[in-house]
Amino acid sequence: MKKVIAITNQKGGVGKTTTALNISAAMALEGERVLIIDSDPQGNLTSGFGIKKDQIKYGLYDVYSSGVSVDEAIMETEIPRLRVITANSDLFGAEIDLLEKNERETTLRQIIQPLRDEFDYIFIDCPPSFGLLTLNALVASKSVLVPVQCEYFAMEGLSLLIKLLWRIRGSFNVTLDLEGILLTMFNRHLALSHHIAEEVRKAFKAKVYDTAIPRNILLAEASGYGKPCIIYAPDSPGARAYAELAKEIINENRLLV
Ligand SMILES: Nc1ncnc2c1ncn2[C@@H]1O[C@H](COP(=O)(O)OP(=O)(O)OP(=O)(O)O)[C@@H](O)[C@H]1O
Ligand SMILES: [Mg+2]
To answer: Which fold has domain 3-252?
Structure first.
């Protein structure tokens, strides 16, 4: 195992799930053994892989709340080396069940512990909120990848998130690190996109990935076909950007074993 990376931002619709889908697929295509965990009761990542309800025996909820073993919840995808743990609206219930547990913030960390030899990277797609599901993801992770939409108020949301990360580091996970900040939905024809990108790069410097993800309708369209864009339209600008990002992440972590 090299790393567990949570993909998170409390702001909705900034590209978390699109990033999770495509980066996990791109890294598996680069030869890494990848598990992606859908930790959002909206289940968008699960649908993004074209997984239908009747195909799912056990999802993340069953592992959290029904004592099902994590191995039983891991499903194959059409991409070699890429596995997924699914979510659906049942997962809302896990948040309530967790409230009654003693070790309520470390449950996911314990769940993935046995998978250390099986995967190189585990990604966790978080919901747009700061509840117990997000807290579990952040406590289970080594680092955090933050997609930021090139839109108004991006910086405000980002400052809040960074404050929260340091708080979690202080209280629950002393080694939690910022993996990187990813500019998403970048429109090179819009002055606003350039302005936000500049502001974020100025504030977070080397922590911002060189690769920015362009606004590209094929990224949205691919989900409708139940495939990561990197498979659906590999030559599209969006897919290419995620392939570049995968290389950046692998390169930055190349010394890890
Ligand atoms: N680079 C992009 N270009 C065009 N559309 C995009 C891009 N990235 C994401 N989208 C679309 O924008 C919408 C929101 O993206 P996504 O679901 O990835 O965000 P999210 O942060 O996971 O949302 P939520 O907070 O609800 O979980 C989706 O319809 C998605 O297909
Ligand atoms: Mg999402």
So the answer is: Rossmann fold (3.40.50)
